Amino acid sequence: QVPLVESGGGSVQDGGSLKLSCAASGSVTSACSMAWYRQAPGKERELVSGISPEGSKTYGDFVKDRFTIARDNAKNTLYLQMDSLKYEDTAVYYCAACRAATGKLGYRYWGQGTQVTVSS
Question: Are 60 and 46 in contact (CB under 8 A)?
């Protein structure tokens, strides 16, 4: 069973909105920190937003109040509402869960990614 499955990516025009979802299962529980990362072609993977089990949220500087992270523990699902999208937000967006010192960028589990394309 794949622990993280993202959905909701797609193509939008500049200024548009998308809502990403990440359905978690198996070892990923509400006790895990979760996060959204993104990776554009030729660039390193970067943190978009993270949320702790207690609900504390962090955002990358480039978000500037455009994105909102949320989690529904009853559904074991992570969300990312993205508004006022810009061309430079084009990337593959990844869901990550459960802190681990030996995990990639400090997370044990990663989803397969969902493409977000913003056209100018």
Answer: yes
Q: What is the pLDDT along the chain (120 residues), one digit of tens a residue?
A: 789 999 999 999 999 999 999 999 989 989 999 999 999 999 999 999 999 999 999 999 999 899 999 999 999 999 999 999 999 999 999 999 999 999 999 999 999 999 999 998
Torsion of CA 61, 62, 65, 68, to 10 degrees: -90
Sequence-distant (6+) residues with CB within 8 A of 54 are: none
| CA proximity to 118, closest of 93, 77, 86 | 86
How far, in Å, CA of 111 to CA of 120, rounded? 28
Rounded Cα distance, 28 and 85, in Å: 29
CA distance 32 to 108: 10
Rounded distance between C-alpha atoms, residue 19 and residue 9, angstroms: 8
Tokens 């207690």 belong to residue: 54
Q: Taking the CB of residue 56, how many other CB atoms lie within 10 A of it?
A: 9
